[in-house]
Amino acid sequence: MSFARDLITWNQLRDELYPWIGESDPYKILLSEFLLQQTRSDQALAYYTRMLHLFPNVTTLANATEDELLRAWQGLGYYSRARNLHKTAKRIVSDHNSRVPKTYVELLNLPGIGPYTASAISSFAFGERRPVVDGNVYRVLSRVMEDATPINTPKAHQHFVQIACELLGESDIAAFNQAMMNLGAHVCLPKKPRCSECPVRSYCGAFSSSMQAAFPVKKKPRPKQHRYFHYIDIHYKNKGLIEKRHMDDIWKGLYQLPLIENRSPHVLDENELLQFLSHHFAITTYNLNEVTPVGRQTLSHQYIHARFYRVQTAIKPDVSKTNYSLVNRENLETFALPKTIVNYLNTS
Ligand code: SF4
């Protein structure tokens, strides 16, 4: 006996509730996979039936207007999925002779299709040996193997795909994928796994050590860092200073006004400003015309607290020892800038 054989045999004895399970028509699989992104199967069912009635093949879907498609999708939410589905249908018609591409790699190039959906379509419709790995499958694999690789890290997907490949062996890929998905959705549940009903419990490390609750492992998100940016908006005649961010940090490649970053949200004092301006640009006299209130921008791992200091000077800034450029102010907004700076320039 083997893991894959026991799993597949169990799945074949189950009553399938949903019409897309066991389906091999690539268009129907494509449609169901788009519907099932962020939607439960029972909710997706009525939409699947309606969409197939209205758009029975990829050509009718591609030829539909966006309004017609959105009306059929109405109530399901996440409308970007519907738009991506529409774009994908059009691309299949225009670039693939109205046939859903067969390979994982080709599928990945279509709008709205990520590794999971590409694996599902290529394996279910065309038998490509690509295990599907989603949240449910991560759970099964990490428990069976007692694998503590955090599932919310970039390397997790490839790592668990590799494990799934080893468990798959020579078995039928479509049957294996379907069975893994069903096991994760109906038996290996997050809180109370139904191990007594599980067809692979004799292979399961977490079951034998009673450590089911310890898997899957998730890396704790880093607490968000607070950063304090003090931008010095230097006005010299009708010009301003700007530099490109090169460092390995947020907004790499974007442009910015002269920046002092420190650990404090407090307004810079005269000495700090003068020191910065004289050291970097040989500006020794200036007027500080405005200091804005602090504004906060939230990024995935950081809060940026930004304040702007509007400085007028009659001394031409010396940029020879810096990466800054002196540019006409009306051109500032033509550079790629972080949102915080765009908002400031729009209101200043
Ligand atoms: Fe999940 Fe339990 Fe089956 Fe292990 S034995 S795979 S923990 S349901």
What does this structure look like?
It is a single chain. The chain is built from 14 helices and 8 strands. It is elongated. The mean pLDDT is 93. The chain has 348 residues and is α+β, with helices and mostly antiparallel strands. Strands 1, 4, 5, 6 and 7 form a 5-stranded mixed beta sheet that branches. It has a 3-stranded antiparallel beta sheet with strand order 3-2-8, with no helix packed on it. The longest helix is centred in the first third of the chain and has 17 residues. The chain binds iron/sulfur cluster (SF4). The site of iron/sulfur cluster (SF4) has 15 residues, from helix 9 and helix 12.
Calculate Rg over CA atoms.
28 Å
Residue share in helix:
40-55%
Shape: elongated
Mean pLDDT: 93
Alpha-carbon distance between the termini?
A: 73 Å
Instruction: Show unreliable segments.
Output: none
SSE ordering: HHHHHHHHHHHHEEEEHEEEEH
Biggest sheet character:
5 strands, mixed
Instruction: Label the structural class.
Output: alpha+beta
Work out the number of β strands: 8
- Name the beta content range: 5-15%
Number of helices: 14
Tell me which ligands are bound.
iron/sulfur cluster
